[in-house]
Structure formats: structure tokens, C-alpha cells
Model the fold of this input.
Amino acid sequence: MKPAAFVRHVPKTLDEAVRILAEVAPMDGRVLAGGQSLVPIMAFRLAKPAYLVDINEVAGLDRITSDGTTLNIGACVRHAAFHKPVVDGPLGALLAAVVRHIAHYPIRMRGTFCGSLAHADPASEWCLVAATLDAAMIAVSTRGERRIAAKDFFAGIMSTALAEDELLARVEIPLLPAGTKFGFNEFSRRAGDFAMSAGLVTYRLEGGKIAGARVGVGGAEPHPRRIPEAESALDGKAPADGAFRAAAEAAANAVEAMEDHQTTAEYRRDLVRAVVRRALEHASA
Ligand SMILES: Cc1cc2nc3c(=O)[nH]c(=O)nc-3n(C[C@H](O)[C@H](O)[C@H](O)COP(=O)(O)OP(=O)(O)OC[C@H]3O[C@@H](n4cnc5c(N)ncnc54)[C@H](O)[C@@H]3O)c2cc1C
Done:
């Protein structure tokens, strides 16, 4: 099918983009970034936005910068930018390890990091990264700039704290200290499909014991989140099978797993147990 008729605006500056968005958002206007989620939905006429604010020609939104403490990812940075580490150290390596699980190569060439966060699919790998690493989202509108912590940003299945006239201009992720271990694992039925469950973990070693553990789970609940019960099962323990299994069990027990036509909650809970344990094994390898 073809999309319903729409008017496409192509602003050249961020100011112009948010001014147009403020005008058209109340009339079902939407931001168009990579189009890899929005365009298929429009083609199936599941969404019929009357106006699109295409941000692909807005100057400066395709930049990735780092000030030594934070990585800043602009609204038009494509998934493919992360195929190679974008910054030295564990964060660049983590992003490069995760990106290859997102969809397929052609989709990664167009889809954007920020578009994934704005779209907020429960199984999105970038949403899991943002939630686990406590990213900050910078939303811009004609009212000014607003900083939203990841824990307050994701509101539910494909639902965020962004107002209809706000553009997610960039995301800030704190750099990971040197020596941080990380591990990622996801389960999907076919390569490139959305994950049915995904786990992301990071930790440091202090005197041979785990410190500062972060355990994030995606795909199991309406949005990804850190699992404090699993993190406290790790901190102060040696990075070994016993602690990994205890943390995986704690994560499986903590999630309120979603059900759908393919899976029961119990099956998804079991997947959470598996992906968290495998992510921890990946981190310690
Ligand atoms: C076959 C297929 C498989 C896929 N598999 C995966 C997968 O495994 N994992 C995964 O994470 N994704 C997957 N995707 C989705 C893909 O990653 C998209 O690129 C991503 O979800 C949305 O990014 P986008 O830039 O394409 O956004 P768009 O499609 O342009 O927009 C998506 C939504 O976000 C809004 N939006 C976009 N950018 C902004 C912004 N800066 N500010 C405010 N609102 C904004 C739009 O208005 C729209 O509502 C898949 C897509 C396809 C077609």
C-alpha cells in the first residue's frame, strides 16, 4: 500500500524545525528521521500523519562528539555510524558490539539512534543501552531545551516523555571508565528480528570483586530498565558462575514479563534468565 497524502517540510536549522513542529504537531505532524519505522507504518496506513518535519537536512544533527566525560549523539546519527567504535574505551566498543544486532545492514544505514529512542520499541537495543547506562535525552521545542533522564523518558510500549512538539535533538551517554567490562546478549527467532529479550551488563573489578554493576533488560517489559535486584546480586561478588546465575535468577523474578500471541510470560521470564546469564558470561570472557 501507499501512504495517505501528507505535506513534507524540510527545515535547514534546528530553530526552523522546532518552529514548524510547533505549528503542525497539533494537526498530527510528526518528525521524520531515518523513516525505518515511520515509513512502513505509513505505508500500511497504521499512521496517517498530515505533516512530516523531515530533519535530515538540519545542519549539525549528524554529529557525534565527546567532551571527555560524555558522548553526544545528534538526532540524525545513523545506526551504521557505530559499526566501528566512535570513541576510545569501553563505551565505543560496547556500542559497536550492540549495533550489529539491530535489524539488517540497509536499515542500519538509514535508521537513527535518536529515532529508535523516540520510537521506543520495547525491544530496541538502543533503548536498552540508554536505560542501562543512564543516558540523558535533550528535547528541544519553541519553549526551549529540556533534559530528560532515561529513567523518566521511557513511559511504556512506544511511548515516551516527549511532548508532541518536542524534537529529540541529541542524547548524552556518560563514558564508561577504563577497564569497565560489558556484555550483551539477545534472543530473537531470526537474525535481524526484534529481540524477544535482551540483556546488557557492565561492571568494574575492584580487588577481584564486581563493583558498580549495571544490569539492563529489554524486550520483556513495556520498556527497558535497570534491574536493581540483579545488580545487588553481583556487587561485591567474584565474577563467576554462582554470582552470574544468582543475578540472572533475580532478573527473571523481578520482571513483569509481557505476553503476546507467540509467548507466555513464563517463557519470556525464562529468556530473561538466559540473556542476563549469557551477557554476564560475555562480560567476563
Ligand atoms: C525490518 C526491520 C527490522 C528492524 N529491526 C530492528 C531491531 O532489531 N532493533 C531496533 O531497535 N530497531 C529495529 N528496526 C527499527 C529501526 O531501527 C528504526 O530505524 C528505528 O526504530 C527508528 O529510527 P528512524 O530514524 O528510522 O525513525 P523514524 O522511522 O523516522 O521515526 C520513528 C518515530 O520516531 C519519531 N522520531 C524520530 N526521530 C525523532 C526525533 N529526533 N525527535 C522526535 N521524534 C522523532 C518519528 O516521528 C516517528 O514517530 C527495524 C526496522 C525494520 C523495518
Notes: Residues 265-284 form the longest helix (20 residues).
